[in-house]
Design brief:
Keywords: Membrane, Transmembrane, Transmembrane helix. It is a multi-pass membrane protein. This is Cation/H+ exchanger transmembrane domain-containing protein. It is a single chain. By secondary structure, this protein is mainly alpha-helical. The protein has 2 domains: 120 residues, no CATH class; 121 residues, no CATH class. It is built from 11 helices and 2 strands. Strands 1-2 form a two-stranded antiparallel sheet. The longest helix has 36 residues. It is globular, with a radius of gyration of 22 Å. The two termini are 42 Å apart.
């Protein structure tokens, strides 16, 4: 989307850049993942630490390298493919290591507050146009409504009850992490590469709406999940486990 919005080259390359970046990201991600299957070698001590460092380094290289090569779409795809294929290979080779995931969870605990603080710092409440807030709320309402309805419908083919499908739809209501991660991308692009005043304003509007989505849906969604979970979900256990109680609420 950024490539289309801020396109400066030939139209045909602008159109092909997105799919080309995705294909390149997938292919490079698979190659990097195959390397991770065999590195470090099995006799190496502290293999989980080396695995974490290798995955983290390759992911950082992918993100920064894709920006350097002006193929921004390939970086995130490469990282996702790398992690998925590497984990799949470790499982098949019997070299899975839970400590790798534990290291990433620890890193996420550190960087998550920084991520949300960074996007919050982009907002100037005093300079925010009230019209942006109004239209942003309307856009969020429409988007969340379609999101909840779609989440309820797409799981109808699975073996869920109506109450369970309703809870799934509610659980998909919160929006925070993705908005914090990419909400400022358009504004950053304008600030780094230059742009017209209207492009700067639009970038600021995107950031404002992203922050609104975080502030509104994250706490409301957490409360809704906590309140509706015990009331909408049931867990069936065997009679041997429960005695005379064949069903309990969880």
């Amino acid at each position: 989307m950024l490539g289309l919005t801020f396109a400066k080259g030939a139209l045909i390359w602008t159109i092909l850049e997105g799919p080309a970046g995705m294909v390149l990201g997938i292919l490079c991600g698979i190659v990097f993942a195959i390397l991770c299957w065999y590195l470090p070698y099995k006799e190496k001590t502290n293999r989980s630490t080396y695995k974490f460092v290798i995955i983290f380094s390759l992911s950082a290289l992918a993100i920064f390298g894709s920006h350097r090569a002006e193929l921004e779409s390939s970086g995130p795809i490469l990282v996702l493919t790398l992690a998925f294929v590497a984990g799949l290979g470790w499982h098949r080779l019997g070299t899975e290591d839970p400590d790798v995931s534990a290291n990433y969870r620890f890193m996420w605990e550190i960087f998550q507050p920084i991520l949300f603080a960074s996007i919050g710092a982009e907002i100037d409440i005093g300079a925010t146009d009230p019209a942006t807030i109004g239209w942003g709320l309307l856009a969020l309402l429409i988007g969340v409504s379609f999101r909840i309805a779609t989440s309820f419908v797409v799981v109808m083919g699975a073996s869920f009850t109506a109450w369970e499908r309703l809870f799934i739809a509610i659980a998909w209501f919160p929006k925070a992490t993705v908005q914090a991660a990419i909400g400022s991308q358009a504004l950053d692009h304008v600030l780094q590469h230059g742009g017209e005043d209207k492009e700067l304003i639009r970038g600021q509007q995107v950031v404002t709406i992203a922050v609104m989505a975080i502030l509104l849906t994250a706490p409301l969604g957490a409360v809704a999940i906590r309140y509706t979970g015990p009331r909408l979900l049931t867990k069936k256990l065997s009679a041997k486990t429960l005695g005379n109680n064949p069903e309990i609420i969880v």
